[in-house]
Specification:
The chain is mainly α. The chain has 8 helices and no strands. It is globular.
Length: 188
């Protein structure tokens, strides 16, 4: 009897495997084995391993976006920004393979990529709107947050800090500096 497997099943399993073995070590054979199917069957769903990796990237951005948005429930302003940053950091730290795929995201690459973070960007703009920061500066702040969050998580994931100083304290301090920088843009 043929096993009924959806594209979503394949991406879910591929994402979890990427977390276990690393994105660079992911293979079609490994994915097929985990799904208990033959490797060529994957070509009925995806054209290549690169396409699966791209789907893992979208999967990651959709999931982290949902977690970041959920973290804002009941809070506003800078508390919401702070919660979103912690939600991202937690997701990236606990999903290293998926996060690896997310690093090369470009929302302007194609329509699917744009959809992956459109809602997240809309929520950030709604949170920042009452803070009286211009749209242009809000876009700069989003780039700053992305650079900080992705860079910090990337360094931590690769054990690149190498200091005995608490990584969590460094993250907390860096986040407060980012938020204070945003406060300096109010009215601008």
């Amino acid at each position: 009897m043929k096993k009924c497997i959806s594209d979503d099943d394949i991406i879910e399993v591929s994402a979890m495997l990427a977390n276990e073995v690393g994105l660079d070590n992911l293979s079609l054979k490994m994915i097929a084995s985990k799904l208990d199917i033959k490797s060529p069957s994957l070509y009925n769903h995806f054209s290549s391993l690169d396409e699966i990796r791209e789907k893992i990237m979208i999967y990651g951005w959709m999931n982290v976006g949902n977690k970041m948005i959920e973290s804002t429930v009941g809070v506003t302003g800078y508390d919401a920004i702070r919660n979103m940053c912690y939600a991202f950091y937690d997701y990236a730290s606990n999903n290293k393979g998926i996060f690896s795929a997310m690093l090369w995201y470009n929302m302007y690459d194609n329509e699917v990529s744009l959809e992956a973070t459109k809602r997240l960007h809309e929520v950030i703009f709604e949170i920042v709107k009452p803070l009286n920061i211009s749209n242009k500066n809000t876009k700069h702040c989003i780039r700053l947050m992305r650079s900080f969050l992705e860079g910090f998580a990337l360094l931590e994931d690769n054990d690149a800090f190498g200091d005995l100083l608490s990584i969590n304290e460094s993250f907390d301090l860096s986040l407060e500096i980012l938020i204070n920088s945003m406060k300096s843009l109010e009215g601008k």
